[in-house]
Write a structure and sequence with these properties.
mainly alpha, single chain, elongated
Amino acid sequence: MEKSSNQKISIMGFFKEKGFDDGSIQKMFERCKQLELLDGERACENWNYLKSVGIQERKLPSVVSKCPKILTLGLNEKLVPTVQCLTTLGTKPGGVALAIAKFPHILTHSVEEKLCPLLAFFQALGVSEKQLGKLLLVNPRLISYSIETKFSQIVDFFASLGLNKQGMIGKILVKNPFIMGYSVEKRLRPTTEFLKSIGLNEFHLQRVVLNFPEILCRDVNKVLRPNLVFLKSRGFYHEQIAVMVTKYPPVLIKSIKNSLEPRIRFLVEEMGREISEIADYPEFFQHGLKKSLEFRQKLLKQKNIDCSLSEMLNCSRKKFINKFGLIAGCL
């Protein structure tokens, strides 16, 4: 007991030296009982190693607070091999450090029992070896989920939508690594049913999910339905909205106040156009109001040029100026 007490004082001294307050220290001891058997020297070694792999020292207190267990892991037995394995997946400098800072628990999982089976599972779904690193390092929390109970359920759900051809699910995961963290019954299925209810058929639904899987992650009642109600209130027909969502899915998640409303107002009041033109070119909503819409509208008005929205916007600024014979100085 006396030895344990001395060790605890030693680790307490370490925490104090690193700037942790009494409340934070108490919470860490409650969350990780192994800290009671840890000496300050061991903790310092792990701390310094984490710093050496690229985690900024100012972020280390937050990392350790999230997962105090990382201070108790064997340096050469656990930390170094795990980081080395993750480094082989890294696609850019600092990627591993950023992943650890996001989800430090990634270092507590077994490479052989958890990481390797997970990578094999994603490869079987069509995720390339090059993309595996991006997938895991962007959303390191993936390693904490169960393949059998979590991932398999989501894969089955995508298959039920007809997205079971070679590589389709892998493409979805690479575009949005966070989608695997959502509940099928509480989030993915309700959003899918909502998209069907506004008129998307099976083919269009597949297209939307493949091109913009993030839409399935948004709350129907808080985001998707309010945007639908807004679009209807501005005069879009049900059929037009279905086409718009198929062509440009973000229309259902963009901010009404900061994106949809001001652009529609500018289209009608300043450009003198009908909102039906947006139905033909819903990508209108992706263009910046000041840098793109106002700039191009001003030049077209000066030249008295009449063109469609897609002709006006579906090109770079340089091509736009060349297309309409405008002065080079506008660049």
